[in-house]
Amino acid sequence: MKVAVYSTKPHDEAFLSNANSNFGHQLHFFKTRLTPETMQAATGYPCVCVFVNDVLDESVLRTLKEQGTELIALRCAGFNNVDLHAAAALGIKIVRVPAYSPYSVAEHTLALILSLSRHTHKAYNRVRDGNFSLKGLLGVELHGLTVGIIGTGNIGAIVSRILAGFGCRILAYDIKPNPKCLEEGVAYVDLPDLYSESDIVTLHCPLNKETYHLIDNEAFAQMKDGVMLINTGRGAIIDTKAAIVAIKSGKLGHLGLDVYEQEGDLFFEDLSDKIIDDDVFVRLLTFPNVIVTGHQGFFTKNALQNIAETTLRNIQDYADRKPLKNQVNPDFIIAA
Ligand code: NAD
């Protein structure tokens, strides 16, 4: 099938081209994001393949449809960037990669928790400067802490298992509790109880209307003083301005982010010689108890291989008119 691949980085091209030897699709790689200015390049392509920060709103989808696109293949699990109702109304099918390697994101979540709890981000620079003082590096042990996990699907369930191995008490909130987590002794509670009892809160639910700014001033007010908050889900689950207020007041003791609500203008690009215009983001970077990584949770060899294979398999199933097992549609949101 003829595929216009947007937001292509060298690693995308390498992994997709390699996996394509089993499929033989005609892949055309575009470095740019899919925007109203760049979408004309997809004219005549029945399939458009996109990533997390490509915005497929109603007007973009309408133009793609007029240009001949029938299928959107997401190279990611989240689909908050796609207007599923508009796609369904236009007859465009959407497929995604639901679980390419949940361990990649789960382990990155742990990397953020461990760095923040033991200040390894500060120690790294300090030791390289010949400063071996321990001032400010006093850590906390995870053993015995209570962790609240919001969203216990593929990723949240693994985070739960890893942290249980550290000796943490696991609380969870999910609109659909995971039977495996229940079997493993995870206690499902409502959000106010999760907020008030957790030393660490970690977010693994999708971004949708219900979870947009789920963590706002009101949520912070219910949390323990000095709580650690981790977000490897989607940026807009947290109201960033509320997080800044919570950091300044000491309510939020540690913040680890792999995602940021306005990341589309920043992440995946080298902006080291540019002035960053986003004052909220820059303010976040000034705090010593905040770590931000640029949406790299998914970025492991294992995951990229699985993403490439599943994306090309999804496209092949469409070309062969087979059932699309990884299709997302508006009913999916309701079912999820
Ligand atoms: P999943 O679909 O397996 O699990 C999501 C869970 O969230 C489900 O159990 C669902 O019932 C629950 N949920 C849905 N709405 C909820 C709500 N309102 N409140 C609480 N729970 C709710 O998804 P996953 O594979 O575990 O991924 C989770 C999220 O992680 C994705 O939606 C995506 O946004 C994000 N993600 C980030 C990266 C990264 O690189 N940082 C990579 C992959 C996925």
What does this structure look like?
The chain has 336 residues and is of the alpha/beta class. The chain folds into two domains: 2-100 and 300-335, NAD(P)-binding Rossmann-like Domain (Rossmann fold), CATH 3.40.50; 102-292, Rossmann fold. It has 13 helices and twelve strands. The protein has helices spanning 10-19, 58-66, 84-90, 102-118, 120-128, 154-165, 179-183, 191-197, 217-222, 240-249, 279-285, 301-319, 330-335; strands spanning 2-5, 26-29, 47-50, 71-74, 93-95, 146-150, 169-173, 187-188, 200-203, 227-231, 252-257, 290-292. β9 (200-203), α9 and β10 (227-231) form a beta-alpha-beta unit. Bound molecules: nicotinamide-adenine-dinucleotide. Nicotinamide-adenine-dinucleotide binds next to α4 and α6.
Q: What's the order of the H and E elements?
A: EHEEHEHEHHEHEHEHEHEHEHEHH
Just name the CATH architecture of the largest domain. 3-Layer(aba) Sandwich
Q: Strands of the largest sheet, in order across it?
A: 8-7-6-9-10-11-12
Overall mean confidence score, pLDDT: 96
